[in-house]
Amino acid sequence: PTPTPGFGALVALVGLGAVAVLVLRRE
User: Fold this and answer.
1) pTM here?
2) Is 23 left (phi over 0), alpha (psi -120 to 50) or beta?
């Protein structure tokens, strides 16, 4: 039930980006 077909991919990219930022800050 996603509003748009690419919405899930967008959320996934944002999530990965957030994780990457956290990892970079942790180092």
Assistant:
1) 0.53
2) alpha
